[in-house]
Amino acid sequence: MRIGDLAARTGVSVRSLRYYEEQGMLTATRSGSGQRTYGTEAVDRVRLVQQLFGAGLPSRTIVRLLPCVDAGTATPESFALLVQERDRISAQLAELTATRDRLDEVIHISEHPTPEHCPTLRTAPLAVNAGTAA
């Protein structure tokens, strides 16, 4: 299939597919006129690459992992790389959770202001003297 067909079947832009090929994540053959052609297995490959990107892996890591995927075996290096990426994602999740929790606190304070949190509520309102006129 041509690159446009692969893009349509996977929902990935032609530009991204070219990038995948440049990085060594996807292989194309060339027709006599120089057009890229892909086998049907390219659809699964692109979906796998998209899943790995979706998990937050950078392209350099994906390139390092794909030979193990292709061979159907894990090396100690690929296993360590996967654990490292999982730990990185876990750290990001912890940071996002802490940020969300802090935002929840700010929302609660905004909905239920108290003098402790809102300086405006600490000052007494100015007394209006009914006997004076400006």
From TrEMBL:
Family matches, as InterPro entries: DNA-bd_dom_put_sf (IPR009061), MerR-type_HTH_dom (IPR000551), MerR_fam (IPR047057)
Record SMART domains: HTH_MERR
Domain called HTH merR-type: residue spans: 1-68
Keywords: DNA-binding
Pfam families tied to this protein: MerR_1 (PF13411)
Coiled-coil blocks: none
Protein name per Swiss-Prot or TrEMBL: MerR family transcriptional regulator
